[in-house]
Specification:
single chain; mainly alpha; Tetracycline Repressor, domain 2; two-stranded antiparallel sheet; 12 helices; elongated
């Protein structure tokens, strides 16, 4: 992550650096990204770069952290309703809000898509880095968020309590990630696919025909 000297910079200069970095990572991905290109577009000396970041990896993780915060802020209005909305209404709203976020910040979509193909940075390292904020305070992870949603849905009698919460969390998270991949890809937004409603129906009702014969 960035050194304290980066966060002490004037906002305009920080934005100039992060904008140049996001553009480069979105264009060619982490593996091919060039520090020279980034500092050239940000109009800063090479020596200054190393006052702010240890290396390209440090800068990349800083950018991913800012994208995480940006997306959480964007989804905030939906996330704030997690106790009020029925579980599957909330999940549907999150998909729709995620689509709107990707429309507003297409570079974040491209960075994430190229990250999945990187051979030079481990996804586990990324997830570990994103689990804390810039001050080292733990950030609620996706799995923990699903666990909280499911426990609440169980408490209000919306879903069965017979299946372990962790199992349901794994299932819902996997399905939501699959839907996201249908909606978004590196080439751009695909829109909400026709199977969207069918997938949600299966998630809610399962496949077993429970009618009496």
């Amino acid at each position: 992550m960035a050194k304290p000297t980066f966060y002490n910079l004037p906002e305009e200069k920080r934005l100039r650096i992060t904008s140049a970095a996001r553009c480069e990572f979105a264009s060619v991905g982490y593996d091919l990204a060039s520090i020279q290109t980034i500092i050239g577009n940000a109009n800063i000396p090479r020596g200054s770069f190393y006052q702010y970041f240890e290396d390209k990896r440090d800068l990349f993780l800083t950018i991913l952290s800012s994208i995480r915060d940006e997306k959480l802020d964007y989804l905030g209005s939906v996330l704030s309703e997690w106790e009020r909305l029925p579980l599957f209404d909330l999940l549907g709203r999150l998909i729709e809000a995620g689509l709107e976020y990707a429309k507003a910040f297409p570079d974040a979509l491209q960075i994430a898509a190229k990250l999945m193909k990187s051979s030079m940075i481990e996804l586990e390292e990324v997830l570990t880095t994103l689990s804390v904020d810039n001050q080292g305070t733990p950030v609620t992870g996706t799995h923990d968020f699903y666990m909280r949603l499911i426990e609440h849905a169980k408490d209000v009698g919306e879903i069965t309590s017979e299946i372990p919460t962790a199992t349901i969390a794994f299932y819902l998270q996997t399905m939501m990630e699959s839907i996201s991949r249908l909606v978004l890809n590196e080439d751009g937004l695909q829109g909400i696919p026709p199977v969207y409603d069918d997938i949600f129906l299966m998630m809610k009702n399962g496949l077993i025909n429970d009618r009496d014969d």
